[in-house]
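Deliverable D5.2: sample structural annotation.
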Amino acid sequence: LGANEIISDLNIWFVIALRSSFTIILGLICSYFVYPGLLETIMWNELKLVLTASILGTLGLICMVSALKKGSLRQLGVFNLLTVFITVTYLIIFENLNIKYYLIGSFFILIGFAFYLFQIKKNRVAEYSIKQYSLLSLMALFFSSSGLLHWYNLKASIPVIASVLTQESTVFLIGISMFLFQPKKLIIEIVRNSINKIKLVFIMALIIFLAILFGFMGLKITNPLISSLLSLSVPIITILFGKIFFKENLNYYVSRT
């Protein structure tokens, strides 16, 4: 909530690389104490499947970041619904999902999400390009595919921490590559201006690590539909927490889009 305002002036790829490096360290510490024999329990064929899911998720992240450079949160919200639709369609066709058990909960989440979209609706009409729509569509496809593949991997008894570490390692490699692709002078300037924000990025990394860890644990015992539906509640909870703990007006979220 408050972190976004503090790090909004930082280079996004630097933040992603630094944040993921912290989550990798946290994951390694966790695996040392919880899964001391991790490397001995996972086979190469299993690791390839986890890596594939992680790459798909990272590609989704790249598409999302690229689209949001000139896009809006409302656009992102709409295409998050597309992610849910792709996931539901796959589960119904290939996993014989009985949707009736999820109707009531889905209804309330979607109503809340619709309220969120209404709150962040822009007063002026933004220019939506085909490139943005393409990037957001690819984001939805990559995220839904990644979630489904991670689900299959976790069902196959692949340790949760292995999925977390692989996912974050992939994000780090992409993030640091995109960051180092910039001019050397700009890199030095970004690092110099970001030193005083490292503590904040670490706190953010700790929260994100726990979110990813518990998210994978939940995915393992439920299914991608519940996972994707609950992800829609994140902006709703953000609005509520912002109002409760930071006394923010709902119009604050409108002005940020």
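Annotation notes: The chain has 13 helices and no strands. The chain has a mean pLDDT of 82.
The annotation will be released with the project's public dataset once the embargo ends.
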